[in-house]
Specification:
Number of strands: 8
Shape: globular
Bound molecules: iron/sulfur cluster
Helix content: 55-70%
């Protein structure tokens, strides 16, 4: 049996899990061989690192895994005891704690020889990475993507990025001794495109009613979209996922195990420490997540280097309020949405700060009900079961009333 056939036989979920495991193993192997290994921000242009075959690991992925496995509070408190404010993003606190204690039973990863930062998701990133660089006395590579108050990134922004891409490549060559290769870069862009398109196609299946998958799957599969976009096996795994969803649509199956009565947008990052509870409450109420901006966030689509740089200016937290709102309205239009549940995430000020106005305007423009709950993507102390349950219940009641009124109107 050929390798391709073996890959074909495995469910996409297994393939995606294997990619993540291999990603960490390769970083450990590189470290053990004496190669330079970095810590990297989730939306740093991975095409650069993949082209140069430089191994990096992602503190945000690690922090999510640690908090999902119950270690978030311990790590946050470790950072706070070292003097870091409780107001700092919990991903940053967990990562700063890990830099210090160098051990987390939930998920270990190699310590960094350099850090690669890109602030297209938030500026907290800069101070977090600067701090690691200073504490560990290692180089910081920074690609600065300013908040874009226009709709699309224009020539001036791309030009500003181009100079920084060139500088980052030079820095990486100096640090690692590895060389840039234009031909390899073209290939990596091609694979990343294939992955991005497959990811968008798979998550796009949420347009079907009922959806062939549970929206919480997107949170779980995201790790590969973050850490391995430029790898062929990721493209294959997401293409496999697309086929599975297609098959589910044909056979009426879904990975959502409840009865899909209501379809909502889940706004914001998952509450990793309370993932089970947040999911179960929705599932028990017949609510499936059929829209998150994460689908678009990691589906980078471009045809050339110019568009690649433009795409990195288009991450959810880097774009204007108007464009952000349009992303949510597009989900309503395409995915037959009944309401929106908004996670007001204490860690992520940049994302949650605009949510009060976004929620108001979303409700006004769509006529759909919304509810908010307070939480945190990694610090379990900022979430209350009772508040979440009450808010979800309230949202369900309004969606139920809306459905009943609609059915009455149709008869
Ligand atoms: S969760 Fe928000 S604040 Fe924290 S690193 Fe991500 S974008 Fe920045």
């Amino acid at each position: 049996m050929s390798n391709t056939e073996m890959v074909e036989e495995k469910p996409a979920k297994v393939l995606l899990g294997e990619i993540v495991a291999k990603h960490y193993q390769e970083a450990w192997d590189a470290k053990n061989r004496g190669e330079k290994v970095g810590w990297c921000a989730s939306n740093f242009p991975q095409e650069i690192l993949e082209t140069m075959d430089i191994k990096v690991v992602y503190p945000e992925n690690q922090a999510a895994a640690i908090s999902a496995k119950g270690g978030g509070q311990r790590m946050c408190e470790t950072a706070e005891n070292a003097g870091y404010s409780n107001d700092i993003c919990a991903y940053a606190r967990i990562s700063l704690a890990y830099m210090d204690v160098k051990d987390a039973p939930e998920l270990n990863m190699p310590q960094p020889d350099f850090v690669a930062c890109c602030n297209n998701i938030c500026n907290c990133m800069i101070k977090w990475y600067e701090n690691i660089a200073k504490e560990l006395d290692i180089p910081l590579i920074l690609i600065d993507v300013p908040y874009n108050d226009e709709y699309e990134a224009g020539d001036d922004r791309v030009e500003y990025l181009k100079g920084q891409f060139d500088h980052a490549i030079k820095q990486l060559e100096d640090i690692t001794g590895k060389k840039w290769d234009d031909k390899r870069f073209e290939k990596v862009m091609e694979i990343s495109q294939r992955t991005g398109k497959a990811w968008l196609e798979a998550t796009g299946y949420a347009k079907y009613t009922p959806s062939p998958f549970s929206g919480f799957d997107v949170f779980n599969h995201m790790a590969v979209a973050v850490c391995a976009r430029g790898k062929e096996e990721s493209a294959i795994a997401f293409e496999k996922l697309t086929k599975e969803f297609e098959e589910n649509v044909k056979t009426g199956k879904s990975t959502f195990k409840g009865e899909e009565k209501y379809r909502i947008i889940f706004e914001g990052i998952a509450c990793w420490p309370h993932l089970r509870h947040t999911f179960k409450q929705l599932k028990d109420g017949g609510v499936n997540v059929c829209g998150t901006v994460y689908a678009d966030a990691f589906g980078y689509i471009y045809n050339n280097t110019y568009e690649l740089m433009q795409a990195y200016c288009g991450t959810p937290n880097a774009i204007s309020y108007e464009r952000s709102l349009d992303m949510r309205l597009k989900l309503v239009e395409e995915n037959n949405i009944d309401g929106m549940l908004v996670h007001i995430n204490r860690s992520c000020k940049q994302w949650s700060g605009i949510m009060y106005e976004m929620e108001r305007e979303f409700r006004e423009r769509t006529g759909l009900p919304t509810a908010t709950f307070d939480g945190d993507q990694a610090d379990p102390r900022n979430f209350s079961d009772a508040q979440y349950d009450t808010r979800v219940q309230g949202l369900i009641e309004v969606m139920e009333a809306n459905k009943a009124a609609k059915m009455k109107g149709e008869h």
